[in-house]
Amino acid sequence: MKELSVLSLICSCFYSQPHPNTIYQYGDMEVKQLDKRASGQSFEVILKSPSDLSPESPMLSSPPKRKDTSLEELQKRLEAAEERRKARRHGGPDGGAGTQEAQVLKQLAERREHEREVLHKALEGNSNFSRLAEQRLNYKMELSKEIREAHLAALRERLREKELHAAEVRRNKEQREMSG
Predict the structure, then answer these.
(1) Helices within 20-99 (DSSP H only)
(2) Which of 17, 36, 77, 117 is surrounded by the fewest CB atoms within 10 Å?
(3) Of the candidates 47, 68, 44, 70, the residue with the CA atom closest to the CA atom of residue 57
(4) Which pLDDT score, from 0 to 100, does residue 125 have?
(5) Order of strands across the sheet with 2-3?
(6) 14/124: higher pLDDT
(7) Which of 62, 31, 60, 36 is nearest to 47 (CA)?
(8) Cβ–Cβ < 8 Å for 70, 42
(9) CA atoms of 116 and 104, how far apart (whole Å)
(10) CA angle 167, 172, 176 (to 5 degrees)
């Protein structure tokens, strides 16, 4: 059996004549050429299982082995971790000004205060908006009322003028009938 590169395998697809060897080996895969069809060539690619690989083929890389740690080293690590925990609980080795819990509580109190301020500002802004909207609405209603009253006054004036004109026309008609 003959080993071929992937490039030669691809190039063999373009040849019209079948290659005399129909089985190719490449690393951990086996390629069999199937019967030629009018639409082109077809291949069957068979991957070998890891147990079938020969010792000379490249092996899959295994994770690096850790060196064994002794019981003494593990004990030292545990003691160091416990010391770090104690230092954190009691404000650190330099006699710090607070524990981690106190810092968390302080941050929570600051957040609550900030939330209260934001809520207060939002309520204040909302009340200002409501007050301004109410003022604008009242102004528009007053303006609308004034315009309506002016329009009604103009209509009354025109009606009064029409009545005066009608009365004058009646008087003139009566005078013509009497004199005529």
Answers:
(1) 71-89
(2) 17
(3) 47
(4) 94
(5) 2-3, 23-26, 29-33, 43-47
(6) 124
(7) 31
(8) no
(9) 18
(10) 145
Structure tokens at 129: 């908006």
Taking the model in full, what pTM does it have?
0.34
In this structure, the strands spanning 23-26 and 2-3 are: parallel
pLDDT for position 97: 46
35 contacts 42 by C-beta, under 8 angstroms: yes
Give the tens place of pLDDT for each residue, 26-84.
Answer: 677 777 777 766 777 777 777 777 665 555 555 555 556 667 778 888 899 999 999 88
Rounded-to-integer distance, Cα 27 and Cα 136, Å = 85
For the purposes of burial, counting CB atoms within 10 Å of the CB of 81, is it exposed (0-12), middle (13-18) or buried (19 or more)?
Answer: exposed
Pair type for strands 29-33 and 2-3: unpaired
> Phi first, then psi: what are they for 42, rounded to 5°?
-130, 150
Both tokens of residue 17?
């004549």
pLDDT per residue as tens digits for the range 84-138: 888 877 765 544 445 788 888 899 999 999 999 999 999 999 999 999 999 999 9
